[in-house]
Amino acid sequence: MQSDMLLAATESLPQDGPGGGTLLLGYGAEEELNRFAATPGWTVHVPGHPDEVRRAVLGAVREGERAYVHVSAESNAEPRGGGEGFERVRDGLGGVVLAVGATLDPVLRATAGLDVTVLYATTVRPFDEIGLRTAALAADRADVVLVEPGRPGILAGHVAETLIHVPHRLLVLGAADTRDEPALGRAVRDFLT
Fold first, then answer.
1. Which InterPro entries does this one have (predicted)?
2. What is the dihedral of CA 65, 39, 56, 81, to 10 degrees?
């Protein structure tokens, strides 16, 4: 059975080929996501819903970007955002949880009742340094939990670089951690308290 996310990506590709840019799609390709997230000159999208996949593909083609769109089998229940930078989904003072792509729904359920700011990222390169720094400085402590699709650690360097002059701690979690939401909630709570 095809993933709704993959189907959305293929349906959004222009029939006459991309314009002046380069568009690459990766389906569950964690190594490719790692590589493009670390390669200057590429825009990297990690959409969490089929509508967001369509928006990323069509936007990259329209803008003529050198873009990599990472598509996973999982998806969030509802599309979000579409604006620039990280979307602030929930406000809190106890720290920041940055959920990337399809990790958002499990993060929201796991952190329900916790006093944390939840940011949602569908584009990770360019990295929204201002959005993360603003949220971290508004919290009582600038501690960050990063929850990424696939293996953890892809964006840890970007977070550390963004907060280099801000005393903070960083907990990095991956997709495997989102499969056990009570454990995810405990990990976030234990780290931020």
1. Transketo_C/PFOR_II (IPR009014)
2. -120
Strands 87-90 and 123-125: unpaired
- Dihedral (CA of 160, 139, 176, 24) sign: negative
N- to C-terminal Cα separation, the chain: 42
Its pTM stands at: 0.91
Residues 6+ apart with CB under 8 A from 145: 95, 96, 97, 98, 116, 170, 171, 173, 187, 188, 191, 192
Measured CA to CA, the distance from residue 71 to residue 9 in angstroms comes to: 8
DSSP-assigned letters across all residues of 1-40: ---HHHHHHHHHS-TT---SSEEEEEES-HHHHHHHHTST
- pLDDT (tens digit per residue) in 103-123: 999 999 999 999 999 999 999
The DSSP element (H or E) to which 128 belongs, if any, is none
Q: Which CATH number fits domain 87-192: 3.40.50.10810, 3.40.50.920, 3.40.190.10, 3.90.1300.10?
A: 3.40.50.920
How do 117-121 and 87-90 pair as beta strands?
antiparallel
* Domains of the chain by residue range: 4-71, 87-192
Express each pLDDT in 157-185 by its tens digit: 999 999 999 999 999 999 899 999 999 99
